[in-house]
From TrEMBL:
This is Sugar-binding protein. Keywords: Signal, Transport. Belongs to the bacterial solute-binding protein 1 family. The keyword Transport applies. Residues 1-24 form the signal peptide. SUPFAM superfamilies: Periplasmic binding protein-like II (SSF53850). GO terms for biological process: maltodextrin transmembrane transport; maltose transport. It comes from Cryobacterium zongtaii. One of its GO terms (molecular function) is maltose binding. InterPro entries: SBP (IPR006059). Pfam families: SBP_bac_8. One of its GO terms (cellular component) is ATP-binding cassette (ABC) transporter complex, substrate-binding subunit-containing.
Length: 434
């Protein structure tokens, strides 16, 4: 996955989420029934990959392979430009004309399931083989499955770390908060970099909750309490969250990060505009091509409660309006072969969802130079809250984080976000299944 594709995915996911949480809240008691897709031996797959040539080609190859493997069902792939996927899904959902299979960003699956647009999966493959972050689960049911995930990491030049007496962090010994602060202070003091660290503050949409809520969780806070998912009180505005907010703000006030970073964090890192990039696994290949053996790939920082990174990427689900769910489940089961998962992972430069698929992808095999990202994901990934309220939570968290980085009062900002989130949950009856 090239950086621009990853960013587009995150932007579109946020747009879809913001619109769908409002649209679906008004019709959550209904189902996506009434559609005709799946009749007459034909079913349709919708994807947001109209603007991503590599991934679209990989998915099309899976569709073609399935059609050639049997003669009962013909699957048709319909791709939308990312900018219009949002509107197309909303319109189809409102009119009960969703296709049999849709792709959806993982953290938004509970909202779709709550609105009764997705049906639980009943596949012939063992999903226990998948990375947990590649499954969309709500109320104990699995509603979606993905071919891949991505992972966050710290990228730096080994030579820069050595020159400044900074230890290269490892998966067993990540940087502590104090150690990370000391490293940034040393790098800033050299005068080489205006802002030594790039955390992608210039990005928009889903990047903020994906990249920055794990840092909150590493402090011991969270976006919402995860027992009943009914309130953010005490977890998004408690002492641990306040400590996170003050730390995030200090990164800007101390000059370690820009309040709005460049358009391409990876490119800035490769061009030595910044010394450390907090970015995704999709940047690894280009970073390695630019820096070679000088590239250090390190885990995220341990801010007190262990390293945490975001989990969950685009996945596939079957809609409740599908006229032939058995055929849809059969197609999805076929698509999850190690060979198919590996082909998509190669096309997107992402982490293969299963060990069997990883063994087929150069670099992700055991001992490969990219296998560390699967370790990051397996050991540190935290799913964004599995609640239908997540799209609203994500929007509020993004606004709050931007305000904090730009100098807003940390406690007041967090309190305001909690008030808005709790009010949204209450106004939707706690997002309990209807």
């Amino acid at each position: 996955m090239k950086m621009r594709h990853a960013k587009k995915r995150l932007i579109v996911a946020s747009l879809v989420a913001t619109s769908l949480v409002a649209t679906m809240a008004g019709c959550a008691s209904g189902a996506a029934g009434g559609g005709s897709d799946g009749n007459n031996g034909e079913l349709t797959v919708w994807t947001h990959n109209g603007g991503n040539v590599e991934e679209l080609a990989a998915v099309q190859a899976i569709v073609d392979g399935y059609n050639e493997s049997q003669d009962k069902t013909t699957v048709k792939l319909q791709a939308f430009p990312q900018a219009s996927y949002n509107d197309s899904v909303i319109a189809a959902a409102a009119s009960g004309k969703l296709p049999c299979i849709v792709d959806i960003d993982g953290p938004n699956v509970p909202n779709w399931a709550w609105a009764k647009y997705l049906t639980p999966l009943d596949l012939s493959v063992d999903l226990d083989e998948n990375l947990p972050s590649t499954l969309g689960i709500w109320n104990g049911e699995t509603y979606s499955v993905g071919y891949y995930d991505v992972a966050l990491a710290m990228f730096a030049r080994k030579s820069v770390l050595a020159e400044n007496g900074i230890r290269q962090a490892t998966i067993d010994q990540p940087w502590t908060q104090a150690e990370f602060g000391d490293a940034l202070e040393k790098l800033k003091a050299t005068g080489t970099w205006t802002n030594p660290l790039d955390i992608g503050t210039g990005d928009v949409g889903e990047w903020y909750p994906y990249a920055f809520s794990p840092l909150l969780q590493s402090f011991g806070g969270d976006l919402i309490e995860r027992d009943e998912y009914q309130s953010a009180e005490g977890v998004l505005n408690g002492p641990e969250a306040l400590e996170w907010a003050e730390w995030m703000q200090s990164l800007a006030t101390d000059g370690y990060i820009a309040t709005k970073s460049g358009a391409d964090s990876a490119l800035d890192f490769q061009n030595n505009v910044t010394a450390i990039q907090y970015g995704g696994s999709w940047a690894a290949a280009n970073n390695a091509a630019a820096l070679g053996d000088d590239l250090a790939v390190m885990p995220s920082v341990d801010l007190g409660e262990g390293t945490k990174i975001g989990g969950g990427s685009w996945q596939w689900g079957v809609t409740t309006g599908c006229a032939d769910t058995e055929a849809a489940m059969d197609y999805l089961s076929y698509s999850l072969s190690p060979e198919n998962i590996a082909a998509v992972a190669v096309a997107t430069a992402t982490i293969p969802a299963t060990d069997a698929a990883a063994a087929l992808v150069p670099g992700f095999e055991e001992g490969g130079n990219l296998a560390i990202f699967r370790e990051f994901s397996a050991q540190s990934a935290v799913l964004r809250p599995e609640t239908p309220a997540y799209p609203f939570i994500a929007t509020e968290f993004t606004k709050a984080t931007q305000d904090i980085i730009n100098g807003g009062d940390p406690q007041d900002t967090l309190d305001a976000a909690v008030t808005a989130i709790d009010a949204n949950i209450k106004s939707n009856g706690g997002y309990t299944q209807k």
